[in-house]
Amino acid sequence: MTARPPRFPVALDRMIGAAKPAAGTTLRPQAPLQHAAQAAARHACGRHAASGLGLDSAAVRQRMVQRLRAAGVRHEAVLQAFAAVERHRFVDTALVIQAYEDTSLPIGLQQTISKPSVVARMLCLLAEGATARAQGHLGRVLEIGTGCGYQAALLARVGRSVVSIERLKGLHDKARENLSGHRDADLRLVYGDGRLGHAPRAPYDSIVAAAGGDDLPPAWLEQLAVGGRLVAPMHDASRGGQVLLVVDRQPEGLVRHWHDAVHFVPLKSGAE
Ligand code: SAH
What we know:
CATH superfamily of the domain at 12-19 and 108-261: Vaccinia Virus protein VP39
Bound molecules: S-adenosyl-L-homocysteine
Structural class: alpha/beta
CATH class of the domain at 12-19 and 108-261: Alpha Beta
Helix content: 25-40%
CATH topology of the domain at 12-19 and 108-261: Rossmann fold
Strand order of the largest sheet: 5-4-3-6-8-9-10
Strand content: 15-25%
Shape: globular
Radius of gyration: 19 Å
């Protein structure tokens, strides 16, 4: 049985003294943001432990948002989503103290949740697509690779509707549990092979993949609306490895741009 992530930061404060790395994971040296998290936790417990109220983690997330802003993230809706979604609720108990560091974290079944700066980069690239600019939000979104559901929760705040597909049943179920409090948003979790997209809700204004392959599945391009944008990690030998690929469907046809070097888990076929 997997333990539910503890409430933050009262439980975080307990974790700081007691955390043991999960099997196969390494707790890295503490980054400045983590010191901020600990300070906030100590402060919170000093103020609220007696009443048992705890303090929410908003201040720690604001610190993460400041770092994203300092790193050049300018899209306000994206920053607001990062300020609102509680990343610590999407990771395992032993990793809660690292939840607001700019680091990728294991989420089980050999998969990882990307670091916030990379997720922000993907969301900002999507937000610069033609339809997203015109509508002020990402519109209808398709995400491939739900994982623990963190990015899906962010997308649900920046898009009009979200379909998120995961090929591993264990993670699909975990995401469903993690997102059970997000019933308001038009967010649909689908278990299956994301290489096929999700035709029933196509076309999509924004398509984003959290796993990288050697080619672009044809279904993604077929399901991309005119004015829509696709952002996906893609292996490209001539560029020395995996890079972020942006594809815009313009009225005249598809336009591709290559961006930063990245390191995502592999895009696989079929569902398990
Ligand atoms: N966005 C996720 C990151 C998950 S990591 C989060 O916020 O947690 C990438 C995920 O893509 C993994 O869970 C992996 O199982 C999934 N994946 C890989 N190939 C896939 C495919 N063909 N269809 C659906 N999901 C896939």
